[in-house]
Design a protein that fits this description.
The complex is a heterotetramer, with 2 copies of chain A (about 160 residues) and 2 copies of chain B (about 150 residues).
Chain A: E1 2-9, E2 18-21, E3 26-30, H1 37-47, E4 77-85, E5 96-104, E6 109-113, E7 116-118, H2 120-129, H3 135-138, E8 139-140, H4 147-150, H5 153-156, H6 158-163
Antiparallel strand pairs in A: 1-2, 1-4, 4-5, 5-6, 6-7
Chain B: H1 2-24, E1 28-33, E2 43-48, H2 62-79, E3 84-88, H3 96-109, E4 114-118, H4 122-126, E5 130-135, E6 143-149
The chains are: A alpha+beta (about 160), B alpha+beta (about 150).
The structure holds adenosine-5'-triphosphate (2 copies) and magnesium ion (2 copies).
One magnesium ion (MG) binds near residues 37, 38 and 142 of chain D.
């Protein structure tokens, strides 16, 4: 399975509705310092059910809401949608799943799978079922590449657990 | 369960040792279990670059540590590819020759796993199948601009 | 003593605010004392890049955080230059335009302070007065080879 | 005052006697991954009296001794000498000070100022007297550039103390 597209609206610095259609193979994101590249990584973590605001450089999840910029006021809602394609052999609609996560600036959260309201737990279980184990197996954050080397041996073993 | 853990460990360790030698052009490395008991065993990493006589990971350089992690990542994904892999500027500490080695491993991983990398380095960009540019034309507001395909075919 | 602390704080803060604006091309930043008492006051850093409306340092990007530290360093050294300054790959997170800004500040610092930088980046090398190459012709044994002078005059 | 030269012998990967003559202005050290650049930084910290082996990526100071390589056995002693020039206007011998720090593989340490045996404390006081305050003011390690931002406010204030 792979990611077909990612949509962001009001998420961190992505104030306006933005869609990124990912390709198979190697997708490379580039741009100047501070333009929003790592925010895309945060969006991928967030929409797949990550609950660690610290891992997204934030103090709490309300930090995910666009806080305003030159001539644009803060957003009321932050929303990220990810569309994944489940069957490599038959890229038809039935094999696509869209997961949406929303948070309002007051902290209220919403979770959707194919436009149906669900709990955060359901999103986390969905991604677990399609092969996304521990975040440490899939996400390698900026400046944290040698985090694996600094983990305790017992923490590091989850990588083998995921490989098993 | 116990069987699966040990089987995965052995398989990953085998590829890790081979990959390390390939990436470093020699030397040796291995994963070590801290206990016989699979429910509580931890994983230690030993790595000795070519010519060097000690395997204390902390004494390795920034670039060497990155290569050890990349070798381990490659080993894990060769046994159990995740659906996608997200790498944010992990080439930051690498010199040009090592970025090339890194991209070779990445291309191999990308046959079974969708890879998303963020980088400032040309060599990494050249290895990509698709390029996405992020900008802030209006200060404070991110926008994705321009997508280029298959630069490596140019 | 109290007087000297507050005087140093004010002086450094002034240069920090100016340097931040210069380096970021706008925005604002400042140092904040956490207490009126100079013996126990801590220093908080607020930084808001141009166009952005919040000043939470943690939300800033890797490159932006590096620039904030470089601006602070410049401010400290403009008030009280240490005899030498050692920087190990601090340009790692910077894009090319920002490395240029960083080297401008470094040249200014180097008028009163002997600077030693380690880098993999060409733009930083071009700003140097002297270049030292370190190699390991024999694996595991470091050697300093070749010294080049005043590349910037080439 | 500035550093005139640095000599290393048996220090980390610098097995053979090596001298680096630093210049005023910007000195730039380059080379491939793992060749020894950051080890030069460790040598500068070590010879100026730093006692934190962790800050030198080591578990104890014996790690400073060259441990051996292809066809070369481990060193018995690790030695670093730094020669500093005190008076910018008169670069004559009387204004130069040479500090030497040695450690044997059994852990025995020696400290010298101009070939005279002293204690570690004397070395630390000497560098304090010539303007080297906290290590955080002068040494910025690899991968630690934003350490300043992660310090507690009370820890960060030493930078202003040094500037005062
Ligand atoms: N909730 C938010 N509202 C508005 N802007 C935000 C929000 N959260 C983060 N930002 C902004 O996003 C920017 C950081 O973006 P990001 O970390 O993605 O940059 P980057 O492209 O990865 O840069 P670098 O190359 O330096 O790593 C910061 O300038 C920050 O101010
Ligand atoms: N006591 C020692 N004896 C022998 N070799 C050592 C010793 N301590 C460290 N080394 C070696 O020094 C090397 C690291 O050197 P260093 O950290 O200076 O590299 P570097 O040039 O900074 O590389 P990078 O560009 O990747 O940061 C490691 O390969 C390590 O094995
Ligand atoms: Mg980033
Ligand atoms: Mg280094």
């Amino acid at each position: 399975m792979h990611i077909k597209s990612l949509q962001l609206k009001g998420f961190k610095s992505f104030a306006d509705e933005t869609e990124i259609r990912f390709s198979k193979g190697i997708n490379c994101i580039v741009g100047p310092n501070g333009c929003g590249k790592s925010n895309v990584v945060d969006a991928l973590k967030w929409v797949t059910g990550d609950t660690s605001s610290r891992g997204m450089r934030a103090t709490n999840m309300k930090d995910m809401v666009f806080k305003g910029a030159m001539g644009k006021r803060a957003a009321r809602t932050s929303e990220v949608s990810i569309t994944i394609s489940r069957d490599e052999l038959l890229p038809i609609k039935e094999n696509e799943i869209t997961v949406t996560r929303r948070i309002k600036s007051n902290g209220d959260s919403e979770f959707l799978i194919n436009d149906r309201k669900v709990r955060l737990k359901d999103i986390q279980e969905l991604f677990l079922s399609i092969g996304l184990g521990h975040k440490d197996y899939v996400f390698f954050e900026q400046g944290q590449i040698d985090r694996v080397l600094r983990l305790k041996p017992e923490e590091r073993r989850v990588l083998i657990d995921d490989a098993a | 369960i116990t069987k699966r853990f040990f089987a995965a460990f052995k398989a990953v360790n085998k590829v890790f040792r081979q990959t390390f030698k390939r990436v470093f052009g020699g030397g040796s490395a291995r994963l070590v279990l801290t206990s016989e008991d699979p429910t509580e065993a931890g994983i230690e990493i030993e790595a000795k670059p070519p010519g060097k006589k000690h395997s204390n990971i902390n004494l390795l350089s920034g670039g060497e540590r990155t290569l050890v992690v990349i070798s381990l990542l490659y080993a894990l994904y060769s046994i159990h590819p995740a659906p996608f892999l997200v790498l944010d500027e992990i080439d930051a500490a690498l010199d040009e020759i090592n970025i090339l080695r890194f991209t070779e491993l990445l291309k191999s991983i990308s046959e079974k796993t969708q890879v998303i990398v963020i980088t400032h380095k040309k060599v990494t960009m050249e290895a990509a199948d698709v390029l996405y540019g992020v900008t802030m034309e209006i200060p404070g507001i991110s926008k994705v601009v321009g997508v280029s395909f298959a630069l490596s075919e140019v």
